[in-house]
Amino acid sequence: MPSLLESPWNNDETRPIIAIVEDNDEDFYAFVRAIRSQEALRQMLSNYTFLRFHDGDEALDYLMRGGNYEGLKAPLPIFILLDLNLPGTDGREIIRQVKQNPNLQILPMIVLTSSASPSDIQTCYRYGVNSYLLKPMGVSTMQQTVQTLFQYWFQFAVLPSYGQVPI
């Protein structure tokens, strides 16, 4: 099982970070339970660390090394999973800013949201999101979605190198 990092200041930098931007505790822990319930998925992600952000402002500060994260020298995450409807800066704006930043635009960004709005879907892809997934209802569909998501991104896709520190 990937570890859950409380603060990027405590990272030992040996395990790549998967950033998760999700304000809803119930959705976040349903996601974590879906991983914990599947041995193959736990094994696949055992060398990674999850770092959760509860709102868009904190996530952007971390990624851009602003606010409380100014001076942080830790590597960037290798993958960002985010909700759209967040307190403060919403997921659409996070995607826009990350994909316009030359130091960050390489990061894979996946939206996992309850919004099936065609406008949201088009906006996210226009801004450069790599994938748009709807939050599934029910335990078994959540498990299947999470398994498929991580199998694709961590078994089949080739991700950028870990260890890149923002300039």
UniProtKB/TrEMBL annotation:
4-aspartylphosphate found at: D83
PROSITE patterns registered for this protein in UniProt: RESPONSE_REGULATORY
Keywords of this entry: Phosphoprotein
One Gene Ontology biological process: phosphorelay signal transduction system
SMART domains assigned to the protein according to its UniProt record, in alphabetical order: REC
Protein name as annotated: Response regulator
Stored InterPro entries: CheY-like_superfamily, Sig_transdc_resp-reg_receiver, TCS_response_regulator
Phosphoprotein recorded as keyword: yes
Residue span(s) of domain Response regulatory: 17-150
